[in-house]
Design a protein that fits this description.
The complex is a heterotrimer. Chain A is built from 4 helices and no strands. By secondary structure, chain A is an all-alpha fold. In chain A, α1 packs antiparallel against α2. Classes of the chains: A mainly alpha, B mainly alpha, C mainly alpha.
Chain lengths: ~120, ~200, ~650
Amino acid sequence: MKPVISEHETTHPLSLARYIAGFVGCVVLTLAAYLLVTRSSWSAWAIVATLSVLAVVQFIVQMVLFLHVTEERGSHWKLATMWLMLGVVLILVGGSVWIMNNMNYRMTPEQMDNYLRSQDSL
Amino acid sequence: MSEASTTLDIHQIEARATEKTTFGFWVYLMTDCVLFAGLFATYVVLRGNTFGGPSGAELFKLPYVLIETMALLTSSFTCGMAMLAAQRRDRTQVLAWLAVTFLLGLTFLGMELSEFRNMVLEGNSWRRSGFLSGYFTLVGTHGLHITFGLIWMAVTSVFTIKKGLTESMRKRLTLLSLFWHFLDVIWIFIFTIVYLFGAKGI
Amino acid sequence: MFASLLGRLSWSQLPQDAITRGGAASIVLGALGIVVLITVLGRWKWLWKEWLTSQDPKKIGVMYIVVAVVMLLRGAGDALLMRTQQAAAAGASHGILDSYHFQQIVSAHGTIMIFFVAMGLMFGLINLVLPLQIGARDVAFPFLNATSFWLFFSGMALVNLSLVIGDFSAAGWLAYPPLSELKYSPTVGVDYWIWALQIAGVGSMLSGINFLVTIIKMRAPGMTFMKLPMFVWSVMASMVLVAFAFPILTVTLALLALDRTLGMHFFTAGSGGNAMMYVNLIWAWGHPEVYILVLPAFGIYSEIVATFARKKLFGYASMVWAIWAIVFLSFTVWLHHFFTMGAGANVNAFFGIMTGIIGIPTGVKIFNWLFTMYRGRISFKSPMLWFMGFVVIFTIGGVMGVLMSVPAIDYQVHNSLFLVAHFHMMIVGGVVFGYFAGITYWFPKIFGFRLHDGLGKLAFWFWGTGFVLAFMPLYILGLMGATRRLDHYDASLGWQPLFIVAGIGACLVGVGIALQLLQLVVSIWQRDQRRDLTGDPWNGRTLEWSVPSPAPAYNFTTIPVITERDQFWADKQSGKKPVKRYEDILLPKNSGASVFIAGFAFVFGFGMIWHIYWLAILAILSLVTTIIVRACNDEPEYILTAKEVEKMDHALARRKEQYV
């Protein structure tokens, strides 16, 4: 069938190359994360940092190559709402973790006990 | 709609409708991301609350989850192939790629349900602890989205067979593919934060 | 066997005592009364065709406001009961209500006022005005819009059904665990609360997306963002908050439901639950929610002050900046609702500082309104009075808020009546007064005649005086140590006189509400005396005043082209006449699918509440089927030909001549 792209289409033509690149990239990133956890003896914090980076990179790869967040004519609105979403997500997750860690620490009797004892010895 | 005797430019109206709908659906996906963020925040806060029961390190079988992950990732790719076929107006290819996507998605869902079932049968259900409540709800909500996606895929395939690749059908396929890709984006974080970190006791 | 099919339903769930029977009777008789009235007038078909299946946002807006006003009566009734109880129940007297009923009334009052009165008035006014102000014919997704309204209606129906069968939550308007968990609230009350809000919340979220896309994608040609009316800016900001904050509510309600229904342990006291996480999540939604409510009210004040001071709004750019500053900051302050829950100084200090900062953009706005009034030629119609009442009340309540932003001070007054006075001044003084002003202002555009202004002013004075009398004593009581939600207190505390004053204030507010209803009745009766013949009864500045009143279904015969801010005002000043060009118009067909979707949602909620799971599953399947059937519909729109538009336009002009 002849490819017919009407002049009213708001998207740039999709390309096979981008999908393949995205797929291969994601497989690599996924395997890398998996192998780091199952086959390496890195410390917990090294793993957290590296896996976070790998996840963010894969996020970007999928957003750009699968979800076309940068390609289309109306894409500045898609990007704007995406940044808004990321802001809210970071505040919600980050803020909740900060707040709850803080509260759990202070509202848990045994830990408070140990903490106060450790303060006494200073 | 009847094109006879109207001054309205139907094509332009349809194109603008597609633009509006696609953007609106994108905004919905962003709100769904915030919904998952709430579930992630809850999971992270409760992940240590095993109440004497098993933690992720004891429960998660990473090789199995890797296969699941690859199935979903591949289905995201095949969904992209379906969209390429739609751009070429090739209805048969669209349906073929959608069928592959559906099967891969079904595989993912089946593997996940099996994992859940095993955990429940071993006594590690969502009633066991805060950690498990968080786990089942976060991963289960993703699975529920996958289920809706599969139903939507089936219905869309039937519509495509009956109506062909009209502008309206292609718009619906675009929305479906956005939804399906988005589910894999969420899975990146579930895989990392729940399974990989969990397996390491982080 | 039959019993298990009906879950937790049983005859004993019907009201058992005088008070609950009274409540149930009011709902049943009220609903019955409406049904009988419509039947006697033979208006079912008309109602279905013209209103219930309509996708015209003007009609949907009217329906939102009607529901909100009915719920205002219920919420106000709750308030009067609460005030009476607290004025009477000192020492030996135990007032008119027992504890359990009092707590249900407290919870119902807050839930109804926020979710069904304030949100209802807000979405109603947005529906009425937004498309007109941006030069559009409709919202982006008309079917979704109708569905949002009906989901809102379903939520409202569930809350009211709780008066007839079962009971309502007694856990406050936010149902904190562990009290709201199954162990301490074993009845259906909290479940009614959860599902009513979950269903209405989905409607709200869909509206947020709908109105946001409308503003971004459907503005008239030439209407760039810095030419938008201030109400549109404020709606855009509010809808961004709706879209990004409501999912948090959805999650939190769902987690509580999972705890109660599937035995999960998110917030339980034990088994690894963490009740503090609920408070954290619910306020992460809750704080943006109050800005969701107040921002459109701010937008209304901007329109009203500019119109009634006959002067363009002072500091347009700074107003826009202030709105977006508020949007950003509203996501960074939520912990101030639980300073006392146990976080350390660092956490409390951060959120305290952010809370202090968020007062600044609001202050900027108030000053801009006052500067707009300065050297204006002010017309003191009732919308202007509502605005001025807002300035006084909101400022007092606002500075009390800044006071409480200091965690050390908040420790003294948290959850006391001091707090209660503060937030009522913000919500009533800010949100409710704004929506009342907006209804008065835009009423002629929708109905073709103005409201009786004298009665409106009288109603304002009763509202304003009553409100101040009802809430200023509460600051004092709070500082004296009175906590919130008390149904009885020791006579030796010396609180009773203040509670009595507050009770008198509440009665005055009740008179104010009665006067508003009277205003409506009188205005309808005397509508010929106050016909809006020009479409522009207030000498307005924005596009909605350029179309006839009542606005026709298609809004504009020709979509206007915009070259500057307040285009309509500029055209009036330059004497430019509107170009009349008739063209074919595409409008959405009516659809009953919205009603059915919401109806199935209601049944689903009912099934979940009463543990009638087969019913819930059936309802969900029906809901999904309805959506699929609707998706099959290839021709959801019809064409209004240019000839028909011309006929309708001429008919409107001829009707005007009838009244001259």
